[in-house]
Design goal:
This is Catechol 2,3-dioxygenase-like lactoylglutathione lyase family enzyme. The structure is a single chain. It is built from 4 helices and 16 strands. A hairpin with a 4-residue loop joins strand 2 and strand 3. Helices cover 15% and strands 31% of the residues. It is of the alpha+beta class. The termini are close together. The protein binds fe (ii) ion.
């Protein structure tokens, strides 16, 4: 498998969603929840830094940060005052045929959930919402792994670490962030980073950015990944967007760096990675993909 190539100047330099970092007030409880209930595998646990990195699939991670006074969870990101996200909404991809079993597993774990059909009578798109122990709003969304609209790193057809009591998640699908200045965000995200604006909703401040070289239509099981950007509001199923989020994206890093340099944003760089503090308090990390981006 190769990553799609992207000629300089064509489309968005963003290739895919690489990971998200959540703030938790009890790291051990977070590790237990995200391994035993969500089914992620623990990749790295640093008790001194109060950090745990969990693997969603071979290319995507979920990281937990427990904040500690006078100590940075990641010293490299300390100049940007990076924090894990609070009350973030995010979705995991699962096989549609696994949705009923996933709901039964949530029942078995004693977790209340809510189902909403985001599709049409002809093409149902059932999704299940619930909360983690830290107020992050989670969602299970059916994904059609054979859909031709594939992201740079398609979800696997089976969970990385299948277990009888954990949810059969395949990948990260979306993250939703709050921006205090919606109009400014809508102009800045394409200009300063190159995110591809796909659409807005007519009834509320809600913008969707396609995490790939070109804006695409959402819905109907697409495996493509998404950044949702809202103003402060309660969305579907009582979900809130995340504040002071830390989100990782695969990208053509040099292209993004040219943009954020022109924008004059605070940033730190290392080989193959660029971290930027967004004016709304989020920190975005842009990573060179693990495989060659030259298709
Ligand atoms: Fe969602």
């Amino acid at each position: 498998m190769t990553t799609p190539s992207l000629p300089a100047g064509a489309g968005s330099p963003i290739l895919d969603l690489a990971g998200v970092t959540l703030e938790v007030n009890h790291l051990a409880r977070g590790i237990r929840f995200y391994t035993q209930v969500i089914g992620l595998s623990l990749q790295h646990h640093d008790p001194d830094r109060h950090v745990a990195t969990l693997r969603v699939n071979t290319e995507q991670t979920l990281t937990l940060w427990q904040p500690t006074t006078r100590q940075a969870n990641d010293p490299a990101l300390a100049p940007l005052r990076a924090r894990g996200a609070s009350h973030l909404h995010m979705a995991f991809q699962i096989q549609p045929d696994d949705m009923r079993r996933a709901q039964s597993l949530l029942d078995a774990h004693g977790l209340p959930w809510q189902e909403i059909d985001l599709g049409t009578p002809e093409v149902p798109d059932v999704t299940t919402y619930f909360f983690d122990p830290f107020g992050h709003g989670l969602e299970l969304r059916g994904v059609n792994t054979t859909d031709p609209r594939q992201p740079a790193f398609p979800p696997p057809t089976q969970p990385l670490t299948p277990g009888p009591h954990s949810l059969p998640v395949l990948g990260l699908r979306e993250v939703a962030l709050i921006f205090g200045d919606y109009d400014d965000m809508k102009a800045r995200l394409p200009r300063a980073y190159g995110f591809a604006l796909a659409k807005e909703q007519g009834d509320r401040n809600f913008a969707q950015f396609t995490l790939g070289p070109h804006a695409q239509a959402d819905g109907n099981g697409t495996p493509v990944r998404w950044l949702y950007a809202w103003d402060p509001q309660v969305g579907l199923a009582d979900m809130l967007g995340g504040d002071h989020a830390l989100v990782q994206f695969y990208a053509h890093v040099d292209d993004v760096e040219r943009r954020v340099s022109a924008e004059g944003l605070s940033r730190v760089t290392a080989p193959g990675r660029l971290a930027v503090r967004d004016p709304d308090g989020h920190v975005f990390e842009f990573l060179t993909p693990p495989r060659s981006a030259v298709g």
